[in-house]
Specification:
Layout (H helix, E strand, L loop, with lengths): L8 E4 L9 H16 L3 E6 L9 H14 L8 E2 L4 H14 L2 E4 L3 H13 L25 E4 L6 E6 L3 E6 L7 E3 L7 H11 L4 E5 L3 H14 L5 E5 L2 E2 L15 H6 L4 H10 L12 H7 L10 E2 L2 H14 L2 H15 L6 H14 L6 H7 L1 H4 L8 H4 L4 H14 L6 H15 L3 H13 L7 H8 L1 H12 L2
Helix pairs in contact: 1-9, 3-5, 5-6, 8-10, 11-12, 11-13, 12-19, 16-18, 16-20, 17-19
Main location: cytoplasm
Family: Belongs to the class-I aminoacyl-tRNA synthetase family. Glutamate--tRNA ligase type 1 subfamily.
Subunit structure: Monomer.
Length: 471
């Protein structure tokens, strides 16, 4: 708990060198879920100290990805680069306290030390001669770094909430650099200072950072600060068990948005990558917040599976409110640069949504299935559908059209008229319905043809039938 507020404080700290990838999104989600579960605070820090690779565009992409996922952070995002003066002040304070020291060893001297250690069969861990030397003997005006005065004996143990107790012998941990000779702080040092100053109580991140936690624990103690709770979550692998790469789906979050996945479906799926609540696969975000806790995170790497994601996505589409789906469809149109449908067609989409969403697994499929509403006459049937428009079916549709012209155009009346036509013509309803569907939508799959006709209205439906029966 935060000593001042008594609250759990988590953070997500991406480097703005590219898009928000799936692994980062999952880390952000776990931090967000835990903070919200505990009634705590979720903070965002942009680790932009690598000025050569950090870009405003990447920062914007990360923020946009988090917003799309619905992971709202508390307060303003913190720039790590902007806190450089604070990082330097802490390093200098540690020197004054005797828990860090200035090191004037040159690159050549360090390399020679390591080569000699290798030749003698010793670990090539650099031990600076300046650790216990008198700084007054340093060459005047020479550049120096500030190093941590790490313990040489004993052990450092991280009590990890996921991995359990993990111990390192201190003889394997070096006097890592806190401040480079140009005054720029190292990643290890800046992270510790920022997490402390931001009041972070729980550091939840990938297990590739586990060794970093041992080193950072030493920095915390050297600065006289409490060490936060660590929870190192397993990495995400591809379906083949190899480290997740672009060929597996290690794309930016924006790519999944563009593929038509709902944010709640992505939250659901990402939560299940490494965390579980019994056998529950499909759950709402509210349920995830209620259930989420660190002990349920597994130690093994999870595998990214597009089929499972699509399955969950379909479930979320079927469970979503119609207006919610329309809003996300319109947002996707804007991303694609497409013209937004007018108010009439938006109303038609809402009316048709209960039938459209039953088969769709993504918003792209939903949009494709709604083509009969979004498109315009004349509708040209696709290759599969065109087979159902024959001289015989044209005759059937032509005779049916004459009957439908007098229908009241309610769903029940349209169904009654079609059934009556089927009996009068002694033709099975299926032999009527499929050409009718193709004439109205240009596809072989759609919501009920009666629902389609009601959505399109009398004038448009009869016009499409006329188009289909024209020679």
């Amino acid at each position: 708990m935060n000593a001042q507020t008594g609250q759990v404080v988590t953070r997500f700290a991406p480097s703005p060198t590219g898009f928000l990838h799936i692994g980062g999104a999952r880390t952000a989600l776990f931090n967000w879920l835990y903070a919200r579960h505990c009634g705590g605070t979720f903070l965002l820090r942009i680790e932009d100290t690598d000025r050569a690779r950090s870009t405003p565009e990447a920062t914007a992409a990360i923020l946009e990805g988090l917003r799309w996922l619905g992971l709202d952070w508390d307060g303003e995002a913190v720039s790590q680069f902007a806190r450089g003066a604070r990082h330097r002040a802490v390093a200098e304070d540690m020197v004054a306290r005797g828990t860090a020291y200035r090191c004037w060893s040159t690159r050549e001297e360090i390399e020679a030390f390591r080569e000699a250690a290798k030749a003698e069969g010793r670990p090539p861990l650099f031990r600076s001669p300046w650790r216990d030397a008198d700084p007054a003997t340093a060459p005047e005006g020479a550049p120096f770094v500030i190093r941590l005065r790490a313990p040489l004996e004993g052990e450092t143990t991280v009590q990890d909430e996921v991995q359990g107790a993990v111990t390192w012998k201190n003889e394997t941990l070096d006097d890592l650099i806190l401040l480079r000779s140009d005054g720029v702080p190292t990643y290890m040092h800046a992270v510790v200072v920022d997490d402390h100053d931001m009041g972070v109580t729980h550091v939840i991140r990938g297990d590739d950072h586990l060794t970093n936690s041992a080193r950072q624990s030493l920095i915390y103690r050297a600065a006289g600060w409490d060490v936060p709770v660590f929870a190192h979550i397993p990495l995400i692998h591809g379906p083949d068990g190899a480290k997740l790469s672009k060929r597996h789906g290690a794309l930016g979050v924006d790519a999944y948005r563009d593929m038509g996945y709902l944010p709640e479906a992505m939250r659901n799926y990402l939560a299940r990558l490494g965390w579980s609540h019994g056998d529950d696969e499909f759950f709402t975000t509210e349920q995830a917040v209620e259930w989420f806790d660190l002990p349920q995170i597994g130690k093994s790497a999870s595998r990214f599976d597009f089929k499972k994601l699509e399955n969950l996505s379909g479930q979320h589409i079927r469970a979503a409110e119609d207006r919610h789906l329309l809003d996300h469809m319109l947002a996707l149109f804007e991303v694609q640069g497409r013209e937004l449908p007018d108010s009439t067609r938006q109303a038609q989409l809402l009316e048709a949504m209960p039938g459209l969403k039953e088969r769709a697994k993504t918003l792209l499929e939903l949009i494709d299935m709604a083509d009969y509403i979004l498109g315009s006459r004349p509708f040209v049937p696709d290759e599969k559908a065109a087979k159902h428009i024959t001289p015989e079916s044209r005759g059937i549709l032509s005779r049916l059209t004459q009957r439908l012209q007098n229908a009241s155009w309610s769903r029940d009346d349209l169904e009654t008229e079609c059934n009556a036509f089927s009996e009068a013509e002694d033709i099975k309803l299926g032999k009527i319905a499929q050409p009718l569907r193709v004439a109205l939508t240009g596809r072989t799959v759609s919501p009920s043809v009666f629902d389609v006709m009601v959505t399109l209205g009398r004038e448009e439906s009869l016009a499409r039938l006329a188009d289909a029966t024209a020679e």
